Predict the 3D structure of the following.
Amino acid sequence: GQQLNQSPQSMFIQEGEDVSMNCTSSSIFNTWLWYKQDPGEGPVLLIALYKAGELTSNGRLTAQFGITRKDSFLNISASIPSDVGIYFCAGPEYGNQFYFGTGTSLTVIP
Amino acid sequence: DAGITQSPRYKITETGRQVTLMCHQTWSHSYMFWYRQDLGHGLRLIYYSAAADITDKGEVPDGYVVSRSKTENFPLTLESATRSQTSVYFCASSGTSAQETQYFGPGTRLLVL
């Protein structure tokens, strides 16, 4: 099946620092989604991207749909303690399969 | 304003027992999904349903059974639980297409002894 590789697997950063993470796939996607999962909860959608090259922001979060359509990037500026959690990329393959990356675990040190 | 709910939130059972995890959504979404989340594997699709009475296998369906007699409910049954099915199970739903954004329930934490 499809593989979505996320990097880094985990990050430990100081409060106030910026964060960058990315996701790559082995095939082309037409949609990229970024989710965040708080401890003990289900994933919640942060940003959706629908076009190659698209750059979309949601508060301190900015995500980009890669030009090759095989990757996507998520940036968080000026991190705060509540940014802690696991960030997942996801995308639908042709048909009905929806794939998720293995996640990037973010720890913000106050 | 319930959205999507799962029950139970926590379950401990023994090997060989049958367990059913419930999922209910109030949005009238056509699509519903079951995932399991394990360390190192991320979220893996078990089964999904495009509409009432239509279900299909995902990436890891073995050992699981689903049904969808009503649009709003999508129960997942482990017919004979095994230790390898210890996991966190998430139900999700999306509108009229599997390509649309999925909305997740809070999860069920299952421990099989």
About this structure: Chain B has a mean pLDDT of 93. The first strand of chain B starts at residue 4 and ends at 7.
